[in-house]
Task: structure prediction
Amino acid sequence: MQRLIEGLHKFQNDELGQYQDLFHRLSVEGQNPHTLFITCSDSRVLAELITQSQPGDLFVVKNMGNIVPPADPRYRNSTAAAIEFAVNTLEVKDIVVCGHSQCGAMQALLEGLPNEGKDQPHLQQWLEVVGPVKKLIQQNYSHLADRDLLATAAAQENVLYALENLHTYPVVVERLAAGKLRLHGWFFKIATAQIFAYDAVSQQFLSIK
Result:
């Protein structure tokens, strides 16, 4: 906690000046982010840092495994609520779903939680949302023996599954049809800080240059 307090003082004393006008304007005008950025709760993945965005630019949703549940009453949750709010009320122009390497949620999905998830029932239930991703890995990636490669494959397939699930939200479908919204699948490689974007033509995640 002391580190947080020291950081707060540093921001107030050393850096607030350059943001003072921006925060004042945002307080008066309200937020108008251009992008909904859905990514993992992993502490190494910071949307504003890797995109060099300013306050007010991104509407960020972080959850375990950057999971996007389908628009189904069984999965009423804050992520679904944020999607509806960002698209319907804030009218964002883009949605980015960003997975990443070394994702603990994907490892847990593939290998199971300790004690069969009995100590983490909410996480166990949350991972069940992306059960289809696990089945896809088992069916199509049996040739991969390395657990890190399997986790990477799961993380990327999970991004694609999230994009599919976004199409189950009526407000998303409506704005896509009107040409007012675009969807993007990204993958962040932590070791090199590279971003890869899914290319529908090649059906591969390609480095953004």
Remarks:
- The mean pLDDT is 95.
- Residues 2-29 form the longest helix (28 residues).
- Strands lie at 35-40, 58-63, 94-100, 182-189, 194-199, 204-207.
- The first strand starts at residue 35 and ends at 40.
